[in-house]
Structures are given as structure tokens and as C-alpha cells.
Amino acid sequence: MDIVVATYPAGATVSTPYEVFIVRHGAHTTPDRVVLRTDKSDPPKAAWSSNNRVSISCGGARVWQFRNFDTIGIGEGNFLYVGIKLDCGQNGYFAE
After folding, report:
1. 18 with 38: CB under 8 angstroms?
2. Fewer C-beta within 10 Å: the chain N or C terminus?
3. Contact 47, 3 (CB under 8 A)
4. Which run of H or of E encompasses 42?
5. Residue range 31-64, pLDDT digits in tens
6. How far is residue 64's CA from residue 58's CA, in Å, rounded to a whole number?
7. In the 8-state DSSP scheme, what is residue 13?
8. Contact at 8 Å (CB) between 56 and 85?
């Protein structure tokens, strides 16, 4: 599995948005697979803390979307269930 941190241009008058995805190794990201979407933050840092756990951190953040789990098909009716820990912003969710 891969953890993908992505950003895209949002224009000069708004903060940079970031998205985090967990995908099969080498697979493309799709909007329905996002596990974290933030802005007003440093780029998120994501790492595997075990075989089925991911930790995501970022300095400050306005969290627009977050899922604390993901289910990834790994073939023939088998799935990998991943728990996601978030440590962004104040108390994990919001920074002023």
C-alpha cells in the first residue's frame, strides 16, 4: 500500500489545500478515496505505524474531511482494513 499526499493549485487568494489517500501500491488516487482534506496547514506528514495503521500529522489545519479508517480491496474478496490516527491542528481538528 502507498500513502499519497497531494495538493493542487487553488489560486492566489486562498490557502493551499492538501489531500491524503491510501491506495494499492502504484494505483492512482480518486476523489472518493480521500481520507483527509485540509487547508490552512503545513503539508501533512503520513507514515505507517504498523501493517494496518497510519498516522497523519500537520502543523495547524482546517480539516474539511477526515475518515479514521479505510478499506482497500486486495483481490478476490479480500480486504485490508486500515485505522487512521489524525494529529492536526488544535485538539486534532482546527487551528485559528
Report:
1. yes
2. C
3. yes
4. none
5. 999 999 998 888 999 999 998 999 999 887 888 8
6. 14
7. T
8. yes
